[in-house]
Every structure is written in C-alpha cells, then in structure tokens.
Design goal:
20 helices, binds magnesium ion, EC 3.6.5.4, binds guanosine-5'-triphosphate, 393 residues, alpha/beta, SRP54_N_sf, GTP-binding, nucleotide-binding, 8-stranded mixed β-sheet, 8 strands, cytoplasm
C-alpha cells in the first residue's frame, strides 16, 4: 500500500512539475512573441523617416523665390550709398577728383614744362602750344592763350614760370565764364527741356540725375520717354523716375516720339508740373532723319505749350574729344541749342574740350558729369572748374 501511495505521490509530483513547467513556458512565450513583433515593426518606422528627409531638400529650392525680391530692391538701394559719400568730400574736392585725368594731361604737362625754368622764351611757348592743342583746348583757344603770353613776354612782363601758370588760369576762367550760365527753370511753367544727343552719351542718365536734383529742390517734375527706339529706354527712364519719385509718361517701343511728346506736354500741364524733361532717341530704326524727327518733336511741344521747348540741352560725351565739338555744331545748326551737358569728364583726359566748346560755339555749358552717381552731375561753374584743374595736390 505504501508503495502504491508512494507511486501516486511521485506521479502527482511529476504532474505538478509538468504543470509548473507548462505555466513557465506560457509565461515566457508571450514576451518572446512580442519581441520579434517589435523587431518587425521597427524597420517600418525606419523607412518612414526617410521620406521625411526627402521633402526637406524639396523645401530648399524655395530660396529660388528669394533672389527675385533681392534683385528688385537693388536699383532702389543703389542711390542711397551714392548720396552718402557726398558730405565727406566738398564739391570742390569731388570736382578735382573727377577731373584728375584732365588735370594731368593739361596742367600736369604745363607744370612739367615749366619746372626748373628760370626764364621764359619763344621755344617754351612753342612747346606750350603743343601741350594745349593735344589737351583738346582747340585751335582758337590755344592761339588766344599763346598770343596773350607773347604780348606779356614782349612787354617784359613774363619773367617767372609761375606767371605763365597764373595767366593761363585767368584766361581760361575768362573764356569759360562767358559760357557758364545756369538754366532758369522759373522762366516758364511748365518749363520744357528737351534732351538731345547721339546714342550712348548719357542723355537718360543726365535726365535721371536732373530729375532727382530738381525734385529734391521742391520742383514738380514730369519725365517724357521720347526714346522709343531702344527697347529698354523707357524702362531705364522709369527706374530713374522711381528713384526721383516723379511721373514718367511713356508709350510702347516703336511708337511715334512726337506722340510721346504730345502726351507728356498734356500731362505736364494737367498735373500742373513745374518742369518737363523729355528724353529723345540717339538714333532711329526708320530712315527718318534724326534731326527731322527732333524738329517734329519740337513743333509738337510748341503747339501744346507756347514757347516750348524752353531749352534744348545737348548731351556730349567728353571722352570723344574733338568728336563732341563736331556733334555740337551739327545739333546746333539743326535744332538750335540752349545749352550743353558734358558727361563722363571723370573718365577722360580730354576734359579740355569744355573750353573748345565754350569758345567756339558760344553755347553755355550748363552741366558737367563727373561720375555715374546721383550727385555727379554738377551745374557748370567756370571758376571752380579752372581752380580744380590748376590746384596743386
Ligand atoms: N563715368 C561716367 N559715366 C556716365 C556719366 N554719364 C553717363 N554715364 C554712363 O554712360 C552710359 C550711357 O548713358 P545713357 O544715359 O544710357 O546714355 P543715352 O545717351 O541715354 O544712350 P541712348 O539711350 O542709347 O541713346 C551709362 O552707363 C551711364 O552710366 C558720367 O558723367 N560719368
Ligand atoms: Mg537713353
């Protein structure tokens, strides 16, 4: 019996052990099942972040939109730093700086001729004559200056090289003073200025600078985009108009310049503007003669505003030297000039041409351009101009 109970006890113990083992297996299994399932799920989210990274570079190309607004404000921002350097240099210093190339080709060479001389003779005057001619002063002015020196020499009143310098300076001031009268914008309302000149001389830039200066001085200005030849001409004027805060009257490219003049004159009257500045083409695509076209524009202006244009301003590029004088004669003959703006004096050694123009044409030099900045267009001041040329640095 005892053996039977013993057997039963053993069996029961074994069953209990088996049960315990089974239970343990059951308890262990679920975590085992969960672990592999996690591993299977894990790679999935690993794939997900990848597409999340992809759209990021897609967002990067957005900056393509950014440069656009960056480009637009640039032309508007430009004039600001242009105005800033102004107070640092006086008008005289800026002029002197702008004329530095002409200074060395004209006065610099005169000075090296005079250097070390103790007496003045005919030979020196001959050398001086050559320097003056090659500095673009023109034959008429050169002869006038040499004659003045010879008269002094003959009278025994030219003994010192410094006297030669002083006489040249005084004579040049005299010649230029005769032809340096500012424009009287108050002589008519609206005062109409027609700006003419061959292509590339600086007409549009000069109008832009002038519009800005006149508008800052309190005048109400209207601009007329009369150059309908060049595709970007009206846009260029509009940029200047925006800078100056003035209205620009324009037509489409290829339109009749006289029609632009007509509308611009009407607008100037309607807006009660003080000044109308009319740009014109430097050349045309039709066979119509440029001078004939300008005459037509002039007639249209006069019909709309009696007496207009009150000034025909010829823009000349100083770097072209004697060519500028030829252009001035041609335009003066054809349309009659009120004044001259001589641009790009900063980039040339041929600034002496201003003297030739004043002396040979009897047309006042109204403005000189000594750079591309807004305030680099200056009313021509003969005294300051000659002093800046002769100033010793
Ligand atoms: N250095 C210098 N450059 C100037 C001056 N005035 C004008 N310019 C430059 O000359 C170039 C031609 O000027 P524009 O005003 O376009 O000349 P434009 O006579 O209107 O030319 P078209 O419309 O083609 O007939 C531009 O690059 C100007 O910046 C100046 O006084 N000095
Ligand atoms: Mg132009």
């Amino acid at each position: 019996m005892v053996a039977v109970w013993g057997m039963l006890y053993l069996i029961a113990t074994l069953i209990a052990l088996l049960l315990v083992l089974l239970l343990l297996k059951i308890v262990r299994r679920p975590p085992k099942k969960k672990k592999p399932s996690r591993k299977q799920v894990e790679p999935e989210p690993e794939v997900e972040p990848e597409p999340e990274i992809e759209p990021e570079p897609e967002v990067e190309p957005e900056p393509e939109v950014e440069p656009e607004p960056e480009v637009e404000p640039e032309p508007e921002v430009e004039p600001e730093p242009e105005v800033e350097p102004e107070p640092r240099l006086s008008l005289f210093e800026r002029l002197k700086q702008g004329l530095s190339k002409t200074q060395s080709s004209l006065v610099g060479r005169v000075d090296s001729l005079l250097r070390g001389r103790t007496e003045i003779d005919e030979e020196l005057l001959e050398d001086l004559e050559e320097v003056l001619i090659t500095a673009d002063l023109g034959m008429k002015t050169t002869q006038h200056l040499i004659q003045a020196l010879e008269t002094r020499l003959a009278a025994g009143r030219l003994t010192d090289p410094e006297q030669v310098r002083e006489l040249l300076k005084a004579e040049l001031k005299k010649i230029l003073a005769l032809e340096s009268r500012p424009v009287d914008f108050s002589s008519a309302s609206p005062f109409v200025m027609m700006v003419v000149g061959v292509n590339g001389v600086g007409k549009t830039t000069t109008i832009g600078k002038l519009a800005n200066q006149l508008s800052r001085a309190g005048h109400k200005v209207v601009l007329g985009a009369g150059d309908t030849f060049r595709a970007a001409a009206a846009e260029q004027l509009e940029v200047w108009g925006k800078r100056a805060g003035v209205e620009v009257i324009r037509h489409a490219e290829g339109a009749d310049p006289a029609a632009v003049a007509f509308d611009a004159a009407k607008a100037a009257v309607a807006r009660k503007a003080d000044i109308l500045l009319l740009d014109t083409a430097g050349r045309l695509h039709t066979k119509v003669n440029l001078m004939e076209e300008l005459k037509k524009v002039r007639r249209v202006l006069d019909r709309e505003i009696s007496g207009a244009p009150h000034e025909i301003l010829l823009v000349l590029d100083a770097t072209t030297g004697q060519n500028a004088l030829t252009q001035a004669r041609m335009f003066h003959e054809a349309v009659g000039l009120g004044g001259i703006a001589l641009t790009k004096l900063d980039g040339t050694a041929k600034g002496g041409i201003v003297v030739a123009i004043a002396a040979e044409l009897n047309v006042p030099v109204r403005y000189v351009g000594i750079g591309e900045k807004l305030d680099d267009l200056r009313p021509f001041d003969a005294d300051m101009f000659v002093s800046a040329l002769f100033e010793r640095s």
